[in-house]
Amino acid sequence: YHWLTEEQFGQIYSLGQLAPGPNMLMVSVIGFRVAGIAGAVAAIVGFFLPACLLMYGVGRLWDRFADSPWKLAIQSGLAPVTIGLMLAGTLVLARAVILGPATTAIAIVVTLILLRVHINPALLIFGGGVVGWLIGAR
User: Fold this and answer.
1) Average pLDDT for the chain
2) pLDDT value of position 138
3) CB 90 within 8 Å of CB 98
4) Please, what is the end-to-end C-alpha distance for the chain in angstroms?
5) What is the pLDDT of residue 116?
6) Which one of 17, 77, 79, 100 has the largest count of C-beta atoms within 10 Å of its C-beta?
7) Which of 103, 87, 118, 114 is nearest to 11 (CA)?
């Protein structure tokens, strides 16, 4: 619906990573941008309520079948799906926020740091933002 530009989405996503709590609270910012307070509330309810209800039901069943072999099979099968979804999300976000040589360099440095050092990613997002601002990256 073209509610946000790719750059706005990248900025909101980064803000969601820095804010305390679940990073998907960024949907409230998108809802607010589109339709004010009512949009923020609708976005939060529409995003979180179905998943909460589904997980409540699945959680009750999950505990009931704790020793079942199919439970272990499902867990093993969902691991690669989870990794794939995370990679897909990363690629979509990268296309939106890596806009040139400067942002490419920042992304590479942040990735290398994350692969080598155990550090809070929020610090790297903040640091990348500061470096980008200082060099005027676009």
Assistant:
1) 87
2) 61
3) no
4) 24
5) 95
6) 17
7) 103
The pTM (predicted TM-score) of the whole model is: 0.52
**Alpha carbons 111 and 116: distance in angstroms, whole number:** 9
76-99 as b/e, with b when 16 or more CB fall inside 10 Å?
A: eeeeeeeeeeeeeeeeeeeebbbe
Q: Is the dihedral of CA 17, 20, 26, 32 positive or negative?
A: negative
Please state, in angstroms and rounded to a whole number, the distance separating the CA atoms of residues 39 and 32.
Answer: 5
Determine the Cα–Cα distance for residues 53 and 59; give it in Å rounded to an integer. Answer: 10
* Cα-based distances in Å from 108 to 12, 60, 113: 21, 42, 9
Whether 110 contacts 90, CB under 8 Å: no
pLDDT tens digit sequence for 68-102: 888 888 888 999 999 999 999 888 888 888 888 98
